[in-house]
Amino acid sequence: MQISILLTTVAKKSDARRLATASLQHRSAACIQIISGIESHFIWKGKRSACREFIVLAKTTTRKLKSLETFWKKIHPYACPELIALSGRAATSYARWVQTSVSS
């Protein structure tokens, strides 16, 4: 069975936790993982930058993916948030749990 993962990055753990809590309450994600200790390097407004960030991974159904992405765009602290969607096959029991978790 297929599931989708939406990933983003944020500068503060409190922002990562806020995305996690809001997404679960919104029932647009079944599970959120927060990965700390990453270092991002990028060009922003013509300048090379680097900063510490947190990766936020949200597991959802392919059907709920667009809803989650729209929701994150509204509540994300960044002006230009990284929102990358990945889809793939998951174990049937896990995919069913994801589906049940995001059902209204």
Structure description:
There is one protein chain. This protein has helices at residues 13-26, 65-75, 92-102, and strands spanning 2-10, 31-44, 47-60, 84-89. It has 104 residues and is α+β, with helices and mostly antiparallel strands. It has one domain (2-102): Alpha-Beta Plaits (2-Layer Sandwich). Strand 2 (31-44) and strand 3 form a beta hairpin. The longest helix has 14 residues, at 13-26. It starts with a strand and ends with a helix.
Keyword list:
104 residues; alpha+beta; 4 strands
Can you give me a brief rundown of this structure?
By secondary structure, the chain is α+β, with helices and mostly antiparallel strands.
Task: Give the topology.
Blueprint: E1 2-10, H1 13-26, E2 31-44, E3 47-60, H2 65-75, E4 84-89, H3 92-102
Antiparallel strand pairs: 1-3, 1-4, 2-3
